[in-house]
Predict the 3D structure of the following.
Amino acid sequence: MQSDQPNALSRKEHLRLEREELILRVALSLLKESGLNGLTMQAIANLTEYSKGTIYQHFTCKEDVLAKLVIRCGQRLIALIDLALDNSEGLRHKVVMVSWAFFINAELESETAGLVSMVKSPEFQTKISESQQKAISVIDQSILSRVIGLFTQQSDISADKVKVGAFGWWAMKWGVQDVLVNDWEMSRLGFDDPKRYFFESLHVFLDGLGVQRDSISHDFETVQAHAKQIFQNH
């Protein structure tokens, strides 16, 4: 009997993970079709054919479900950032490629990426489990450490400009990502291609920090093609 127990526990956990995967797939589908208002625990139960009690065994509320989706979005982003860092050279090129990683992730996770700001708000955080709060914090720290590490490991920028550079880049990138995932009508303001304007602005910003120019980071089409090559399987 004792030798069978680990297998029984393993199967139980496997079934639990399968249920969770289905719940998250259904939640994402509801987000795509009906938006936040259409995402309820009852709607998830109806489409999974689980009882609401079963849904609540996995997630305490719909905010917990949303947090889990955002956590997965963040985990994918970290993987893309690491890919970008491994496939670029020099500070300017790395900054450009990592920026592309954020935009590619937003395209792949368009519904979820648009929720990041909401999920990080203090009001939202009070509604989710402590484990979800910690997971979000870990992802934030992982991303920030990569951003700051990128600036500190290169000799282009003086030590007193590292935090300024990291924060400025982070703020620019998140601002444009918010424009993209929430479909702002920037063409009315004369910005038909926000992504292209971002990269032109990014180079002005990097020039101001004293980052060395290179021959591979400035042509938008070339950089875009390189990014697609790097991220094509993700």
